[in-house]
Amino acid sequence: MPSSSPSGWTKLGFPLQRRVTGNVFFGVGSENFSQIDQIGRFSAHTFGGGLRYQFAARQDITGYVARQTRTHGQIDTSLGLSYGIRF
Questions:
Q1: Are 37 and 15 spatial neighbours (Cβ–Cβ below 8 Å)?
Q2: How many Å separate Cα 47 from the centre of its chain?
Q3: Which single residue of 5, 35, 39, 66 could bond 78 by disulfide (Cβ 3.0 to 4.6 Å)?
């Protein structure tokens, strides 16, 4: 049955300019996704950062990049972009 071990995650945000904020983050964790007779466990370290630009009082655009290194030499890189409207 799948199980997981304790993990941790932290994010630090900071202002860069009047309408621009940045952040950096780091996380660790592990997971056992196998059945009783299988080997299927990995641990991972994730780190990355992002920028948020607020161009109107209730609108912003945010981008991020993250890189995850896992056991067995696996690497995953993620990029994201979002547009936010607040009501």
A1: no
A2: 7
A3: 66
